[in-house]
Amino acid sequence: MSQFIASQRDSVRYRSRLMQTEAERHPETHPLTWRLRDDGEVVWLEEYLSKDGYRSVRKALADSDPQAIIATMKDANVGGRGGGGFSAGLKWSLTLQGDDMPRGYLICNADEMEPGTFKDRLLMEHQPHLLIEGMILAALANNSCFGYIFLRGEYVTAARVLNRALEEARAGGWLGADINGSGFDFDIALHTGAGRYICGEETALINSLEGRRANPRTKPPFPGQSGAWGKPSVVNNVETLCNAPGVILHGADWYQGLSGDRSENGGSKLYGISGLVEKPGLWELPMGTTGGEILDRAGGMRNGRQLKAWLPGGASTGFLLPEHLDMPLDFDTVGKEGSRLGTGLLTIVPQEQSIVALVRNLEEFFARESCGWCTPCRDGLPWTAKVLRALELGQGEDGDIELLEKLAADCGPAQTFCAHAPGAAMPLKTALKHFRHEFEAGVSARPVKAAEGQAD
């Protein structure tokens, strides 16, 4: 287990590093990253404007048709890049709108705490105006009066960069009253979180933003009907919002064409990889790129190691095997294999890594980050971690594996108040499916160790 943790620490220095040069990135194929600089410096407002910055906002303001923005985003089928994959355009279309409705809020979920995920950090630290531009478009579509960026508190550099970019945008007339002379008023504030994974759930995030305990809310009502301070609110991930400028500027057909014939889920995606590979990092690639291609781009396994398993998109996704490397990484295909695309950042597990120890480490994290609101999550996850700890030490008992299966089922979809526990259950369920023999070994070793203890 220490080797796996060390590999994750080793990848930290790469976690905001794009592994493609400017020569490899083009406006027509890399809408998220083509503006980034090879020297790693921030793309500030003057440079951003010279690279088509805020052109989509000018276009949208000139058209003055919020429904057209929503329709284009729906046709482009921009799936939520925070892990859920839900259509951003469809979410926007469900927000209460109309002349008699109060103006609501636009909230960017930048609380990037999914283990193994570091894509949003790249966008915020190096290209903050792309996020601001995407938020303005979302605000226009949803008649939002104000926006918030809910940022992971540990992202200190991102906070500094975003605050400066927000000041630049206000000074340039892109935020505040009467944006670009259009009569539309909208501004954005940066809010840093206190470091809770549960704030990745949109209603828990809203509670935290309001100064309340970060517990998920009952749905319905959904945030689009009653969100922050009781007003219609839209919550989208950083990468999701960063897709909006390209879609509005170039159209839905262009966006769908970015993935070619790889996937029916159109667009490009920030894919990444961490673990014991030669070159951990990030790439903007067509949606539907395979795990094998990403592993090849990373230079393969480090020091000739063999691949045992991999997580396709963070700790709350299900384990896949080496034979799944040829599978297109999109929301639909990965879902059919019993996992989720999640954030699209692969976590590599080498052959020598104990799956029991790895899953125990993940379940301890999820147990610690539970808000404690519902019983299966509050009590089931610590119990799961306790059983796994015993199996890891070879002190498991008969029935432990069946107990783990029941705990995973009790934490599954529709059994808990939010998606936290189902996310925690997915790596456990798939580990039991693919590596059951490793769990069984933790039971069979117990009588020997007990006998040795009695002899002492």
Automatic annotation (TrEMBL):
> Catalysed reaction(s)?
a quinone + NADH + 5 H(+)(in) = a quinol + NAD(+) + 4 H(+)(out)
Q: Which protein family is it in?
A: Belongs to the complex I 51 kDa subunit family.
- What does the UniProt function comment say about this protein? NDH-1 shuttles electrons from NADH, via FMN and iron-sulfur (Fe-S) centers, to quinones in the respiratory chain.
Q: Return the protein name.
A: NADH-quinone oxidoreductase subunit F
> Could you tell me which residue ranges the NADH-ubiquinone oxidoreductase 51kDa subunit iron-sulphur binding domain spans?
356-401
Which EC number(s) are documented for this chain? 7.1.1.-
| InterPro entries assigned to the protein according to its UniProt record, in alphabetical order | NADH-UbQ_OxRdtase_51kDa_CS, NADH-UbQ_OxRdtase_suF, Nuo51_FMN-bd, Nuo51_FMN-bd_sf, Nuop51_4Fe4S-bd, Nuop51_4Fe4S-bd_sf
From which source organism is this entry?
A: Marinobacter panjinensis
GO terms for MF: 4 iron, 4 sulfur cluster binding; FMN binding; metal ion binding; NAD binding; NADH dehydrogenase (ubiquinone) activity; oxidoreductase activity; quinone binding
Task: Enumerate the cofactors the protein uses.
Answer: [4Fe-4S] cluster; FMN
Q: Keywords assigned by UniProt? A: 4Fe-4S, Flavoprotein, FMN, Iron, Iron-sulfur, Metal-binding, NAD, Oxidoreductase, Quinone, Translocase
Q: What PROSITE patterns does the database record attribute to this sequence?
A: COMPLEX1_51K_1 (PS00644), COMPLEX1_51K_2 (PS00645)
